[in-house]
Specification:
It contains ten helices and eleven strands. It is α+β, with helices and mostly antiparallel strands and about 400 residues long. It has two domains: about 150 residues; about 230 residues, paralog of FGE (formylglycine-generating enzyme) (Alpha-Beta Complex). The strands form four sheets. It has a four-stranded mixed β-sheet with strand order 10-9-8-11. Strands 5-6-7 form a three-stranded antiparallel β-sheet, with no helix packed on it. Strands 1-4 form a two-stranded antiparallel sheet. Strand 6 and strand 7 form a beta hairpin. It is globular and about 65 Å long.
Length: about 400
Amino acid sequence: MRDLYDGVRKRSLMLAEPLSDEDCGAQSMADASPIKWHLAHTTWFFETFILERFEEGFAPFHPAFRVLFNSYYNGIGERHPRAQRGVLTRPAMRDVRAYRANVDARVARLLAAQPGAELPQLLELLELGLQHEQQHQELMLTDVKHLLAQNAMWPAYMDSALARAPAAAPLGWIGFEGGLADIGHVDTSFCFDNELPRHRQYVAPFAIASRLVTNGEYLAFIEAGGYREPALWLSEGWDRVGELKLAHPLYWQRDAHGQWHEFTLYGLQPLDAARPVTHLSLYEADAFAHWMDARLPTEAEWEVAAASVPVTAGGLHPAGAQQGGGLTQMFGECWQWTSSSYAPYPGYACAPGALGEYNGKFMLNQYVLRGSSCTTPPAHARASYRNFFPAGARWQFTGIRLAR
C-alpha cells in the first residue's frame, strides 16, 4: 500500500509541473477548480478521513483548511463556495506542497505503526482516498485545459507535437443477442458504491458501433445544418443551442481562411478528421445520433458490450481507431454518453457518515457515461465504472458511441 500511495501522490505533483504558480491558482468557471485546490483537497481527504480518525494526538496542519478544501461533504461542516475557489490566493502553492508533504509523512508513520485491529479499516480508507485522488488527476487535466483555452495566446500544457492520426476504420456494427445480463462490479477488487450491487437485468437484442464518432463525421453533421434543425434535438438541448449560440463542439474554431482548428492540451491544432470528436454535451451526442438514424446505448448495453474488451490507457488527447474488426476505443479515448439517467441500482445503500455523500446524493438530473478518457489515470478504468454529468456538460473528454 505504501508504494501505491507514494506513486499516486507523486503523480498529482507531476501533473502540476508544466504549470506556473499563476496557472495553478486560477479558476476559469464554477465547474472547474484551480490546480492548487485539487492538490490541497486530495490532501484534505487523507487528513480529514484518516489522520483525524487514526492518528494519536491528531492536530490539523491548519484549522482553516478544513473549510477551504472541503468540497461537498456537508457532514464535515462549512465549505468555501465552489465558484470562489479561484480567489484563494492564500495558501500559496509552496504552502500547499508543504501541506501535502506533512500529511504524507504522517500517513507513512501511521502505516509503519501497524495499528492492530484498525488496520483493515485504515487500508480501506486509504484505497478510497487514492481512487478519489485519481479522479482528481483527471479533473486537473480537464480543468487546466479549460483554463488555458480562455487565453488568446493558446498556450500548450504540453509543448510537443500531436501527430496526425491514420485514417479511421470504417464504422461497423457489432450485434449482441441480448437476454438476461449481470450488471455491476463483479469481483472483490476496488469499486465505488454506485457500481453495486451486481444485479440481473434484461437487455433486448442490440447493435453497437465498432468505434467512436470521428471529428470528420461530426463536421459533416455541422455542415448539413445539424445545429439548425430542431427536429434532431431534445427540447432542452435546442433551447441551449439558442441561448448559447452553439454551432460546434467546445474548443473548435475556424480561422480567417475557414479552416477548422481544435484547442488541445498540446495547444491549438488543425482539426484531425480521424480522431474521435470530444467535448460534447449529451444534447449534442443525442442530436447526432438522431441524424445518423441511430441512438445512444443504455449503460447496460454498453457494459454487456464491454465485458470482454481489455482496458487500455490513453495519452493527453483521443487517438484514432485502429484498423481491424471488433470493438475499439471502449476505453482510454473519450467518456461515452449513454441514454441512462444516473440512478441507484436495485438494493443500493449509501455508506454511513460523511463518506456516504460521495455518490448517492448526486443521483438526480444527471446521465451516465461509460468507459474512460485519454486523461483517465492508468488502472482507474473498468467495465462497471459509472461516471456521471449533467446533460449540458462539455468540458470533460466526452464523445459518442452509437447504438441501434
